[in-house]
Amino acid sequence: MPITSELREDHVRVITMAYPPVNALPVQGWFDVATALDEASRDMNTHAVVLRAEGKGFNAGVDIKEMQNTTGFDALIGANKGCFAAFKAVYECAVPVVAAVNGFCVGGGVGLVGNADCVVASDDAFFGVPEVNQGALGAATHMARLVPQHLMRSLYFTARTIKAVDLVQHGSVLEVVPRDRLDEAALAVAGEIAAKDTRVIRAAKEALNGIDPIDVNKSYRFEQGFTMELNLMGVSDELRDEFAGTEKAGNTK
């Protein structure tokens, strides 16, 4: 299955995304991530979650090919709702979520990681929000949780990426390790959390969300409204077609 969930003996639940070749999630994939996290929340035997991915990179955002091969706005609306559900599920998961990031983490990937409680990354990991290239807006809410405001705006407007090692100085990435040690490092952090009394940790998670200065759900939903406007204008469709054609020709973003 593309989205799997496994509870370990140490009470750490490992949720894995596997959508080759680049982990660009289709509509159902986003909802499946949300479902896995919601189930983790309800399971009192789950004390912490590690969100990870198989393959070349952690997450390449939404599946643009699915969107362009679907008639009407069903895929667009589905992707918007699916991303919102997945990001919300990470943020509102009753236990801490440790994101284990390998390779590329762009677009929707930043939405997942920005809402996580702890980020561990491999030394080849990088982050970015290239939405403007595809005529969309979104995940600025979550990138702003990884970098300071002016850097976020620069990355957003230029669609540039930033290396995981450069995020350590901002405190948003806890640790950068060699790729072959990523799972080990993420599980170590999650295991340390899971060893605490889960009643206290669950209360702490709710408390920290309660004092968060930004309502991430409302903020992201506001961003999505502009994406819908750009789609109604026809701008997004034009840029997605251009992106899909470029990708088909063998170029990478």
TrEMBL record:
Keywords of the record: Lipid metabolism, Lyase
BP term (GO), one: fatty acid beta-oxidation
UniProt-listed CDD domains: crotonase-like
Coiled coil: none
Enzyme class of the recorded protein, top EC level: lyase
Any GO MF annotation of the entry: enoyl-CoA hydratase activity
Pfam family, one: ECH_1
InterPro entries xrefs: ClpP/crotonase-like_dom_sf (IPR029045), Enoyl-CoA_hydra/iso (IPR001753)
Family of this protein: Belongs to the enoyl-CoA hydratase/isomerase family.
Entry protein name: Enoyl-CoA hydratase
